[in-house]
Amino acid sequence: MTIKDTAEEWEVRATATPFVGNKTSVRTDDVVMPGGSVVRRDYQVHPGSVAVLALDDLGRVLVIRQYRHPVRHKLWEIPAGLLDVPGENPLHAAQRELYEEAHVKAEDWRVLADVFTTPGGCDEAVRIFLARDLAEAEGQRFEVEDEEADMELSRVPVDELVRGVLAGELHNNCLVVGVLSLIAAREGDGLDALRPAEAPWPARPFEA
Question: What range(s) does the Nudix hydrolase domain occupy (predicted)?
Answer without folding.
Answer: 44-178
